[in-house]
Amino acid sequence: MTTVMIPSRTVHADVIVRGSWYEIDLGAIRNNYQQLRAHLSQNVKIYACLKRNGYGCGAAAVAATLAAEGADGFAVASVNDALSIRNMGVALPILLYPGAMPAAGPIVEALDLTISISSIDELEQWRAAMTRIRAFIKVDLGFFRAGATPMETERLLAAAYMHADVQVEGVYAHMSELPSSRPSDALDQLARMQAILGAASSRGVRPSIAMMSSTEGVLRHPDMDFDAVDPGALFVGLPDTDEPVRPLLLRPALKSICTTLVAVKRLDGSLGAVPEIPGFKVGMTLGVLGMGWGDGLPRSVPNGAEAIVRGRRARLLPPTHLEHLRIDLTDVPEARFGDQVVLLGGQGDQNITHDEVASLWGTDMIGLYGGLRDHIPKIYLNP
Predict the structure, then answer these.
(1) pLDDT one-digit tens code per residue, 332-380
(2) CATH number for the domain that contains residue 91
(3) Which residue of 75, 112, 214, 248 is surrounded by the most CB atoms within 10 Å?
(4) Rounded (to 5) percent helix, strand, coil in the chain
(5) How far is CA 44 from each of CA 6, 63, 65, 143, 330, rounded to the nearest angstrom?
(6) Burial class, 368, CB count within 10 angstroms (exposed 0-12 / middle 13-18 / buried 19+)
(7) Of 142, 200, 144, which Cα lies nearest the Cα of 171?
(8) Per-residue pLDDT for 285 more than 80?
(9) Is 122 exposed, middle or buried (0-12, 13-18, 19+ CB in 10 A)?
(10) Is the model's pLDDT at 242 over the cut of 90?
(11) Residue 258's domain spans which residues?
(12) Is the pLDDT of residue 14 over 70?
């Protein structure tokens, strides 16, 4: 992909061609990593979780940024994300969360990835697909998702250590995110992990890395640090908890969502009757944006939703289309075809905040990042 460099930005040529883009602040990602590193013991490794293409910010660019800061490794759920990281020239360990199947064994070996194993059946299927396996044993401490039960973990560890073609690099778990009214759940899960590690140590099968803290864990439960942590949302500026014990000063990685006016016109009588849709009126100036619900915008235009054009707020109009959205430009008479439109972020003295967008779009902050589309180009600030 052709890349154009301008001061403090890396711009792909398709940004110019498509006319819509996200601005991602790599300086914020560096800050967030440094904030976390300062609160951890030096012997605690950081495996940055970059699932869902680095929370929509681009796994490759985020991984390269964190590698330069001193991250010890990465974790992803998609082989494609791992491939993009390797193609960026990052050689640090990459842990594959559950999701890849043994049919991908040759690619996993070629990329030198570490797989997750949750059962003896998985272990044998992966062994049949690969010549040599690097693996983390995944444990379910009460999340009721992937992972061996605490009762089965000891048997799985013993089986993995029996095979010369299997290198057990670690054991890990993720705390339950299921709704619960029991404040002791986290402590119960910690106790289960400690029991697993104690039994593994006594039998000589404890891996060198034990890990169970994602973003909420690392912010709320320092006693869960063990040998490594694997937060993800934290690096893009999402604390994922309202009650942190570690007071990190995080900054959002998503700086702005921008598009372009692809049409501007004044409505006249030759169009016929104005649609009986809120916001439409006779004689208005109508603009069309080059983004729609296929690009991650809400399927229904929220009441009160606005964008910024030439430093002024303007109302977005329903309905949303697959790749287009209307905007009322009556109060921005100087607006022209090709003008930049800001859906999130600042322009002039106006600013549309993350909280405002998340609220209007009917989601939360993590949902906002999760809704970023991979086909929308990214401009990286502070590379």
Answers:
(1) 999 999 999 999 999 999 999 999 999 999 999 999 999 999 999 999 9
(2) 3.20.20.10
(3) 75
(4) 35, 25, 40
(5) 37, 19, 19, 24, 57
(6) buried
(7) 200
(8) yes
(9) buried
(10) no
(11) 254-381
(12) no
The CATH number of residue 361's host domain is 2.40.37.10
Instruction: Read off the DSSP letter of residue 255.
Output: E
Could you report the per-residue pLDDT of 288-322, keeping only the tens digit for each? Answer: 999 999 999 999 999 999 999 999 999 999 999 99
Q: Which of 207, 185, 186 is nearest to 196 (CA)?
A: 207
Tokens encoding 98: 């559950």
Tell me, yes or no, whether 80 and 111 share the same domain: yes
Residue 127 within any structural domain of the chain: yes
Which positions ≥6 away from 242 have C-beta within 8 Å?
none
Cα(340)–Cα(307) distance, integer angstroms = 10
Handedness of CA 262, 264, 265, 267 (dihedral sign): positive
Q: How many domains does the chain have?
A: 2
* Residue 149 falls in which region: left (phi positive, over 0), alpha (psi -120 to 50) or beta: beta
Among candidate residues 290, 349, 347, the one with its CA nearest the CA of residue 320:
290
Q: Which of 262, 261, 286, 256 is nearest to 376 (CA)?
A: 256
Do the domain assignments include residue 128? yes
| Rounded Cα gap, residues 135 and 137, in angstroms | 6
Residue 371 shares a structural domain with residue 287: yes
Place of tokens 């100036």: 285
Those residues whose C-beta lies under 8 Å from the C-beta of residue 19, and which sit 6 or more positions away, are 259, 260, 262, 290
Task: Say whether pTM exceeds 0.85.
Answer: yes
34: number of Cβ within 10 Å = 13
Q: What is the pLDDT of residues 92-134, one digit of tens each?
A: 999 999 999 999 999 999 999 999 999 999 999 999 999 999 9
Within a domain: 10: no
Q: How large is the average pLDDT for residues 253-257?
A: 98
User: 212 by DSSP, 3-state: which?
Assistant: coil
219 and 285 fall within a common domain: no
Neighbours of 341 (CB within 10 A): 27
* Judgement on whether residues 264 and 228 belong to the same structural domain of the protein: no
Range ranked top by mean pLDDT from 2-16, 76-90, 178-192: 76-90
Do 63 and 192 belong together in one domain?
A: yes
